[in-house]
Recover the amino acids of this structure.
Protein backbone atom coordinates (compact mmCIF):
# COMPACT_ATOMS: atom_id res chain seq x y z
CA UNK A 1 0.00 0.00 0.00
CA UNK A 2 1.46 3.39 -0.92
CA UNK A 3 1.80 6.01 1.78
CA UNK A 4 -1.18 8.35 1.56
CA UNK A 5 -3.09 10.74 3.75
CA UNK A 6 -5.05 13.99 4.01
CA UNK A 7 -3.90 16.95 6.11
CA UNK A 8 -7.49 17.73 7.04
CA UNK A 9 -7.90 14.39 8.77
CA UNK A 10 -4.67 14.97 10.63
CA UNK A 11 -5.89 18.29 12.02
CA UNK A 12 -9.10 16.69 13.14
CA UNK A 13 -7.52 13.64 14.78
CA UNK A 14 -4.89 15.71 16.57
CA UNK A 15 -7.59 16.96 18.92
CA UNK A 16 -8.62 13.49 20.03
CA UNK A 17 -8.34 12.55 23.68
CA UNK A 18 -5.85 9.87 24.67
CA UNK A 19 -4.26 8.43 27.81
CA UNK A 20 -2.25 11.65 28.19
CA UNK A 21 -5.08 14.08 27.45
CA UNK A 22 -5.46 16.10 24.22
CA UNK A 23 -2.86 15.10 21.62
CA UNK A 24 -1.26 18.56 21.19
CA UNK A 25 -0.35 18.57 24.89
CA UNK A 26 1.19 15.10 24.86
CA UNK A 27 4.78 16.24 24.38
CA UNK A 28 4.42 18.90 27.07
CA UNK A 29 3.04 16.28 29.46
CA UNK A 30 6.05 14.01 28.86
CA UNK A 31 9.17 16.18 29.09
CA UNK A 32 11.43 13.13 29.36
CA UNK A 33 10.28 11.88 25.94
CA UNK A 34 12.18 14.68 24.23
CA UNK A 35 15.25 13.90 26.32
CA UNK A 36 15.10 10.22 25.35
CA UNK A 37 14.62 11.00 21.64
CA UNK A 38 17.52 13.47 21.68
CA UNK A 39 19.60 10.73 23.27
CA UNK A 40 18.48 8.36 20.49
CA UNK A 41 19.74 10.85 17.88
CA UNK A 42 23.07 11.18 19.69
CA UNK A 43 23.59 7.41 19.97
CA UNK A 44 22.55 6.81 16.36
CA UNK A 45 25.06 9.42 15.19
CA UNK A 46 27.79 7.80 17.27
CA UNK A 47 26.95 4.39 15.80
CA UNK A 48 27.22 5.75 12.27
CA UNK A 49 30.52 7.45 13.01
CA UNK A 50 31.80 4.04 14.10
CA UNK A 51 30.88 2.65 10.67
CA UNK A 52 32.35 5.46 8.57
CA UNK A 53 35.23 7.88 8.69
CA UNK A 54 32.95 10.64 7.40
CA UNK A 55 31.35 13.11 9.85
CA UNK A 56 27.61 12.65 10.33
CA UNK A 57 25.25 14.65 12.53
CA UNK A 58 21.74 13.67 13.58
CA UNK A 59 19.45 16.15 15.31
CA UNK A 60 15.91 15.90 16.66
CA UNK A 61 13.82 18.43 14.69
CA UNK A 62 10.51 18.02 16.44
CA UNK A 63 7.80 15.75 17.77
CA UNK A 64 4.30 15.52 16.26
CA UNK A 65 1.18 13.55 17.09
CA UNK A 66 -1.54 12.23 14.81
CA UNK A 67 -2.76 9.33 12.63
CA UNK A 68 0.19 7.48 11.11
CA UNK A 69 -1.27 7.63 7.59
CA UNK A 70 -1.39 11.42 7.70
CA UNK A 71 1.83 11.99 9.57
CA UNK A 72 4.02 10.37 6.91
CA UNK A 73 1.98 11.35 3.85
CA UNK A 74 4.55 13.96 2.83
CA UNK A 75 7.08 11.19 2.20
CA UNK A 76 4.74 9.22 -0.06
CA UNK A 77 6.64 7.81 -3.03
CA UNK A 78 9.94 9.36 -1.98
CA UNK A 79 11.05 7.26 0.95
CA UNK A 80 11.96 3.88 2.34
CA UNK A 81 10.32 2.41 5.43
CA UNK A 82 11.49 -0.05 8.03
CA UNK A 83 9.18 -2.00 10.34
CA UNK A 84 10.76 -2.30 13.79
CA UNK A 85 9.49 -5.04 16.09
CA UNK A 86 9.80 -4.37 19.84
CA UNK A 87 8.95 -7.71 21.51
CA UNK A 88 8.85 -6.48 25.12
CA UNK A 89 6.61 -3.58 24.12
CA UNK A 90 4.43 -6.02 22.15
CA UNK A 91 4.26 -3.55 19.27
CA UNK A 92 5.77 -2.47 15.97
CA UNK A 93 7.20 0.93 15.10
CA UNK A 94 7.88 2.59 11.76
CA UNK A 95 11.13 4.18 10.66
CA UNK A 96 10.93 6.19 7.43
CA UNK A 97 13.74 8.01 5.58
CA UNK A 98 13.31 10.42 2.66
CA UNK A 99 15.36 9.94 -0.51
CA UNK A 100 17.79 12.76 0.33
CA UNK A 101 18.70 10.97 3.56
CA UNK A 102 18.73 7.58 1.83
CA UNK A 103 21.29 8.46 -0.84
CA UNK A 104 23.46 10.50 1.53
CA UNK A 105 23.60 7.61 4.03
CA UNK A 106 24.20 5.01 1.32
CA UNK A 107 27.08 6.98 -0.18
CA UNK A 108 28.62 7.49 3.26
CA UNK A 109 28.24 3.87 4.37
CA UNK A 110 29.65 2.57 1.08
CA UNK A 111 32.79 4.68 1.45
CA UNK A 112 31.94 7.79 -0.58
CA UNK A 113 33.55 11.15 0.13
CA UNK A 114 30.79 13.52 -0.94
CA UNK A 115 32.74 14.80 -3.95
CA UNK A 116 30.08 13.72 -6.44
CA UNK A 117 26.83 15.70 -6.95
CA UNK A 118 23.88 14.46 -4.89
CA UNK A 119 21.97 11.65 -6.58
CA UNK A 120 18.58 12.91 -7.78
CA UNK A 121 17.32 10.46 -10.42
CA UNK A 122 13.91 9.05 -9.54
CA UNK A 123 14.14 5.26 -9.63
CA UNK A 124 13.46 2.27 -7.37
CA UNK A 125 16.20 1.40 -4.90
CA UNK A 126 18.42 -1.55 -5.76
CA UNK A 127 18.59 -4.64 -3.54
CA UNK A 128 21.99 -3.52 -2.22
CA UNK A 129 20.69 -0.02 -1.42
CA UNK A 130 17.68 -1.51 0.37
CA UNK A 131 20.00 -3.79 2.34
CA UNK A 132 22.21 -0.86 3.33
CA UNK A 133 19.16 1.06 4.59
CA UNK A 134 18.07 -2.06 6.46
CA UNK A 135 21.46 -1.97 8.19
CA UNK A 136 20.88 1.71 9.02
CA UNK A 137 17.46 0.94 10.51
CA UNK A 138 19.13 -1.85 12.50
CA UNK A 139 21.56 0.65 14.01
CA UNK A 140 18.69 3.04 14.60
CA UNK A 141 16.87 0.25 16.45
CA UNK A 142 19.95 -0.39 18.59
CA UNK A 143 20.05 3.30 19.48
CA UNK A 144 16.33 3.19 20.31
CA UNK A 145 16.83 0.25 22.67
CA UNK A 146 19.72 1.97 24.42
CA UNK A 147 17.90 5.30 24.75
CA UNK A 148 14.84 3.65 26.34
CA UNK A 149 16.82 1.13 28.42
CA UNK A 150 16.28 2.90 31.74
CA UNK A 151 12.56 3.44 31.08
CA UNK A 152 11.31 0.30 29.35
CA UNK A 153 14.01 -2.00 28.00
CA UNK A 154 13.33 -3.93 24.81
CA UNK A 155 15.18 -5.50 21.94
CA UNK A 156 14.48 -3.98 18.51
CA UNK A 157 14.35 -6.16 15.40
CA UNK A 158 14.03 -4.92 11.80
CA UNK A 159 11.28 -7.06 10.31
CA UNK A 160 11.00 -5.43 6.88
CA UNK A 161 12.61 -2.72 4.79
CA UNK A 162 10.88 -1.56 1.63
CA UNK A 163 9.73 1.41 -0.41
CA UNK A 164 6.19 0.12 0.12
CA UNK A 165 4.60 -1.36 3.21
CA UNK A 166 1.25 -2.17 4.75
CA UNK A 167 -0.01 0.23 7.44
CA UNK A 168 -1.48 -2.82 9.16
CA UNK A 169 2.02 -3.37 10.59
CA UNK A 170 1.18 -0.68 13.16
CA UNK A 171 -2.55 -1.28 13.38
CA UNK A 172 -3.83 0.64 10.35
CA UNK A 173 -3.68 4.12 8.83
CA UNK A 174 -5.73 5.69 11.63
CA UNK A 175 -3.47 4.48 14.45
CA UNK A 176 -2.45 7.44 16.61
CA UNK A 177 1.33 7.77 16.75
CA UNK A 178 4.00 10.02 18.17
CA UNK A 179 6.34 10.94 15.32
CA UNK A 180 9.90 12.04 16.05
CA UNK A 181 11.45 13.87 13.10
CA UNK A 182 15.23 13.78 12.75
CA UNK A 183 17.57 15.72 10.46
CA UNK A 184 20.65 13.86 9.23
CA UNK A 185 23.57 15.87 7.86
CA UNK A 186 26.44 14.33 5.87
CA UNK A 187 28.99 16.61 4.20
CA UNK A 188 26.92 19.50 2.75
CA UNK A 189 23.84 17.32 2.31
CA UNK A 190 20.85 16.88 4.55
CA UNK A 191 17.79 14.67 4.69
CA UNK A 192 15.10 13.62 7.09
CA UNK A 193 14.04 10.41 8.72
CA UNK A 194 11.32 9.84 11.25
CA UNK A 195 10.29 7.34 13.87
CA UNK A 196 6.58 6.64 14.45
CA UNK A 197 5.70 5.18 17.86
CA UNK A 198 2.09 4.16 18.56
CA UNK A 199 0.69 6.20 21.44
CA UNK A 200 -0.50 2.99 23.09
CA UNK A 201 3.15 1.93 23.45
CA UNK A 202 3.97 5.01 25.52
CA UNK A 203 0.97 4.67 27.84
CA UNK A 204 2.70 2.28 30.32
CA UNK A 205 5.72 4.64 30.38
CA UNK A 206 3.80 7.85 30.98
CA UNK A 207 4.62 8.12 34.68
CA UNK A 208 8.36 7.95 34.04
CA UNK A 209 8.22 10.11 30.92
CA UNK A 210 6.16 12.75 32.77
CA UNK A 211 8.84 13.41 35.36
CA UNK A 212 10.55 16.75 35.04
CA UNK A 213 14.31 16.89 34.64
CA UNK A 214 16.45 18.02 37.51
CA UNK A 215 17.44 21.65 36.94
CA UNK A 216 20.79 21.59 38.68
CA UNK A 217 23.05 18.66 37.95
CA UNK A 218 25.55 17.81 40.70
CA UNK A 219 29.09 19.02 40.11
CA UNK A 220 31.68 16.37 39.35
CA UNK A 221 34.44 15.92 41.90
CA UNK A 222 37.67 15.47 39.85
CA UNK A 223 39.39 13.49 42.63
CA UNK A 224 36.46 11.12 42.97
CA UNK A 225 36.16 10.83 39.16
CA UNK A 226 39.85 9.89 38.91
CA UNK A 227 39.42 7.29 41.64
CA UNK A 228 36.42 5.78 39.84
CA UNK A 229 38.40 5.58 36.59
CA UNK A 230 41.26 3.88 38.43
CA UNK A 231 38.92 1.29 39.95
CA UNK A 232 37.23 0.64 36.60
CA UNK A 233 40.59 -0.09 34.97
CA UNK A 234 41.26 -2.71 37.67
CA UNK A 235 37.96 -4.47 37.02
CA UNK A 236 38.28 -8.06 35.82
CA UNK A 237 36.41 -8.97 32.65
CA UNK A 238 35.83 -12.27 30.89
CA UNK A 239 36.91 -12.76 27.28
CA UNK A 240 35.87 -15.55 24.94
CA UNK A 241 37.74 -17.04 22.00
CA UNK A 242 35.47 -18.27 19.19
CA UNK A 243 36.99 -20.69 16.69
CA UNK A 244 33.83 -21.36 14.67
CA UNK A 245 30.05 -21.06 14.82
CA UNK A 246 27.26 -22.87 13.02
CA UNK A 247 23.47 -22.78 12.98
CA UNK A 248 21.51 -25.92 13.72
CA UNK A 249 17.82 -26.58 14.21
CA UNK A 250 16.13 -27.48 17.47
CA UNK A 251 15.48 -30.93 16.00
CA UNK A 252 19.22 -31.41 15.53
CA UNK A 253 19.87 -30.26 19.10
CA UNK A 254 17.31 -32.76 20.40
CA UNK A 255 18.97 -35.53 18.39
CA UNK A 256 22.47 -34.97 19.82
CA UNK A 257 24.01 -37.96 21.59
CA UNK A 258 27.01 -38.48 23.84
CA UNK A 259 30.05 -39.27 21.71
CA UNK A 260 28.62 -37.72 18.57
CA UNK A 261 31.17 -35.80 16.48
CA UNK A 262 30.17 -32.33 15.26
CA UNK A 263 32.32 -31.13 12.31
CA UNK A 264 33.50 -27.51 12.19
CA UNK A 265 34.42 -25.39 9.19
CA UNK A 266 37.56 -24.13 10.96
CA UNK A 267 41.04 -25.33 10.06
CA UNK A 268 44.35 -25.11 11.99
CA UNK A 269 45.07 -21.88 10.07
CA UNK A 270 41.67 -20.29 10.75
CA UNK A 271 41.68 -17.11 12.77
CA UNK A 272 40.03 -16.99 16.19
CA UNK A 273 37.68 -14.15 17.13
CA UNK A 274 38.09 -12.81 20.67
CA UNK A 275 35.00 -11.24 22.25
CA UNK A 276 34.16 -9.47 25.47
CA UNK A 277 30.54 -9.10 26.52
CA UNK A 278 29.49 -10.22 23.00
CA UNK A 279 31.51 -7.40 21.43
CA UNK A 280 34.21 -8.53 18.94
CA UNK A 281 37.64 -7.18 19.86
CA UNK A 282 40.47 -9.07 18.17
CA UNK A 283 41.43 -11.50 15.43
CA UNK A 284 44.01 -14.00 16.65
CA UNK A 285 46.00 -17.01 15.45
CA UNK A 286 45.68 -20.22 17.43
CA UNK A 287 48.96 -21.76 18.59
CA UNK A 288 50.47 -23.97 21.26
CA UNK A 289 53.23 -23.37 23.80
CA UNK A 290 54.41 -25.46 26.74
CA UNK A 291 51.55 -27.87 26.27
CA UNK A 292 48.75 -25.29 26.32
CA UNK A 293 46.89 -23.47 23.57
CA UNK A 294 47.78 -19.82 22.98
CA UNK A 295 46.41 -16.90 20.97
CA UNK A 296 48.61 -14.49 19.05
CA UNK A 297 46.96 -11.14 18.30
CA UNK A 298 46.76 -10.51 14.55
CA UNK A 299 44.75 -7.29 14.51
CA UNK A 300 42.00 -5.36 16.20
CA UNK A 301 38.56 -5.82 14.67
CA UNK A 302 37.53 -2.83 12.56
CA UNK A 303 33.84 -2.00 13.25
CA UNK A 304 33.52 -0.23 9.88
CA UNK A 305 34.85 -3.22 7.93
CA UNK A 306 32.72 -5.66 9.93
CA UNK A 307 29.68 -3.49 9.18
CA UNK A 308 30.39 -3.57 5.44
CA UNK A 309 31.05 -7.33 5.50
CA UNK A 310 27.66 -7.86 7.18
CA UNK A 311 25.98 -5.87 4.40
CA UNK A 312 27.78 -7.48 1.48
CA UNK A 313 28.17 -11.05 2.69
CA UNK A 314 25.82 -11.40 5.68
Amino acid sequence: MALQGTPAASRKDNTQEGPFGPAPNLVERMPMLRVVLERLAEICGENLRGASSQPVHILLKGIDVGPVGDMIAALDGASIAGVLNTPKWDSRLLAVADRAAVFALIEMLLGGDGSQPPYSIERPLTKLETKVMGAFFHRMGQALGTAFAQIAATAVVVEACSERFDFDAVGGRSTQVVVARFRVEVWDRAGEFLLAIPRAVLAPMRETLSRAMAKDAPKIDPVWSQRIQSEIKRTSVSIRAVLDERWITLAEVAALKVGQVMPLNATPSSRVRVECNDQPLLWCQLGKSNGVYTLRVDEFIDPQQEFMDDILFG
Remarks:
- The mean pLDDT is 82.
